[in-house]
Amino acid sequence: MTMVICIKSKIRFLLFIVSLSITINASAQSLPDSTIKKIDAIFSRWNTNDGPGVAIGIVRNDSIIYAKGYGMANLEHEIPITPETIFEMASIAKQFTAYAIILLARQEKLQLDDDIHKYLSWLPYPKEKITIRNLLIHTSGIRDFMAIGLITGVKRDDAITNESIIKILCEQQSLNFKPGEKFSYSNSNYILLAEVVKSVSGQSLRQFADSAIFNPLHMINTHFIDNYKEIIKNRSSSYKRIDSAHFENSIISYAAPGPTSLFTNIDDMAKWGINFYHPTAGDNKAIEQLTQKGKLNNGNETVYSSGIIVQTYKGWKEYIFNGGLASYRNELMIIPDLKMSFIAFSNDGDYYPHTDDMADLFINDTTKSNGTGNVQKRDSGEAILKDIISIQKIAGNYISDDGMLINFRLSNNKLYADAWGQSNLLWKDKADTFSYFNDPEVKFKFTINGKNSSVRGFFYRDPPVHYTKYVNIPIQTDALLLSYTGTFYCPELDAKYAIKLKDHHLVLANNRVGDTALVLVGNNHLISNLNSMNHLLVIRNNKNQVIGFEVNSDAIMHLRFNKIE
Asked: What angle do CA 95, 96, 97 make, to 5 degrees?
């Protein structure tokens, strides 16, 4: 990651003066007491001296107009949170990694549509062209290393570095999907982007980001770390809540600059927010590229750009992203047209970011005045179906390719979708298409093929999720369940799992992960509550014998385990 931005000493001095003026302006604006009371009320739960808390900042134009800390940065030493307290940014780090790539592209050191093998010759998947852009917008199909780690039994306090992650990625033999086919969030993409920065610039991501982003913005308390044992002054500790009055330390052993491992505070992040509409690091074209929505191979846009979600808030363009690691919970919200930012960092694992609650106090809803907020109202009485016979053919249990279960049922001549612990009334749009009564964007298209039927679910995903109807085996005898048992090995991970029969139930067993209950769904699906292995697709030979399974769980697809015993 060698590329150093050459800036003459005079320009450096001017940039320092600009940055200094931003810091000086932090107290240049004041808020009415009534507004301050409303902000403090939002965070009153954390305004204690016996628990973790939150640091917040509100930015308008080039000034922090309000910043405050609530709760404790360190419970052992009774250190309170202030706007200067340092937090781990988790996935908010990704937008800085992306910006480093874009700055290199702006200097014509690389092109976003370059094949990453040009810079990372050691990477597998030689038959597929994976571009830098695929990494930026999460359309590469490369499996998430965190999900892989869960399968191999990586523990919370195990040391994780870029080097150890790269070793895992080099053993992979297949992708989740063809690059550009769909969006799937993968932290591996940003590990590889950090390696691209290093390959192109000759500097580590930490070094390049310091010289090209943090120094020009005078973000003196911000940097990536490549050693999780590094001493960081004024760093907050992260805490997991045990009950209403007790906490325990939530340990981070990560040093994986790229997707995570960025440390900063409210004062510095305010300068980054200002850079979106008054760029000092980079230029307007670089910001435009950073916030450009991703596109799939079919031309459809995603809401994700490069480390940022691009959407609207009350009719205004919004750049937003959050991050969570251990018990750090953070969110950055930028409304560029209003030149405002809302920032919240927390060291409480139970905290949910409240940036929109702060924004509500300052931003008017334009959708009400221009009519764009109007939604066609539906009458639940009109959801009564007439052609019950055809609907009965599609009612039943379904499973998606990545193991999500859904049941379509008829009740009082209405069709309902039961999934994720919720029951949703369906509205008939066409003969074969239904949508959620309360959310028309969620659609299902049914296809009937003989006795079998399938569904295309639109769940804000592209391409649509495919669900297939299945029939549960009414009586699952020990003899039947024994046919699924054995020891299974994955060469890509050098990992073994056993499927065992215990007390008339199937169990998935691994020495590091432990035992997890399995539920047989239909003939060929095994469901568990184990992260990254919640769905196993059974593989059979031409004699109908079980010879292996594939892990198909969204973040991990087509990961094969072969039966060896």
From this structure: 90
Contacts of residue 168, defined as CB under 8 A and 6 or more positions apart, other chains included, come to 145, 148, 149, 152, 493
Instruction: Kindly report, residue by residue over 371-420, the tens digit of the pLDDT.
Output: 544 456 788 888 899 888 888 888 999 999 999 999 999 999 999 999 98
120-136 in b/e form (b: 16+ CB < 10 A) is beebbbeebebbbbbbb
Q: Where are the alpha helices (DSSP H) in 210-350?
A: 266-275, 284-290
Q: Residue written as tokens 């050098």?
A: 494
> To which H or E segment does residue 308 belong?
none
Instruction: Write the DSSP symbol of residue 85.
Output: -
Fold that domain 478-563 belongs to in CATH: Lipocalin (2.40.128)
For the chain, state the CA radius of gyration: 26
For tokens 């003196």, name the residue: 220
Task: Give the separation between CA 487 and CA 192, rounded to whole angstroms.
Answer: 33
> Which SS3 state, helix, strand or coil, does residue 480 take?
helix
For the record, the structure tokens of 198 come out as 């290093």
Domain ranges within the chain, ordered by starting residue: 9-141+176-367, 380-470, 478-563
> Which residue bears the tokens 């949910």?
352
CA angle 140, 141, 147 (to 5 degrees): 120
Residue 232 DSSP one-character state: -
Query: Phi then psi for 246, rounded to 5 degrees?
Result: -130, 150
CATH 3.30.450.40 correct for 9-141+176-367: no
Give the DSSP H or E segment for 337.
none
Question: Is the pLDDT reported for residue 245 higher than 90?
Answer: no
Q: Indicate the pTM of the whole model.
A: 0.88
Q: Which of 76, 82, 8, 70 is nearest to 39 (CA)?
A: 70
State which amino acid sits at residue 92: I
3-class state of residue 330 by DSSP: strand
**Which pLDDT tens digit goes with each residue over 131-170?**
999 999 999 999 999 999 889 988 766 778 888 899 989 9
150 alpha carbon, distance to own chain's centre: 16
Q: Map residue 67 onto helix, strand or coil.
A: strand
Tens digits of per-residue pLDDT, 497-508?
A: 999 999 999 999
Q: CA angle 384-386-388, nearest 5°?
A: 100
**Structure letter (DSSP) for residue 142:** P
Let me know: does 528 contact 519? Beta carbons within 8 Å: yes
Read off φ and ψ for residue 217, nearest 5 degrees: -90, 0
Do 380-470 and 478-563 share a fold?
yes
CA 438: distance to chain centroid?
25
In angstroms, rounded to a whole number, what is the distance separating the alpha carbons of residues 146 and 188? 8
Could you give the CA distance from residue 506 to residue 516 in angstroms, rounded to a whole number? 9
Give the fold, CATH level 3, of 380-470: Lipocalin (2.40.128)
Closest CA to 111 of 98, 101, 126, 123: 101
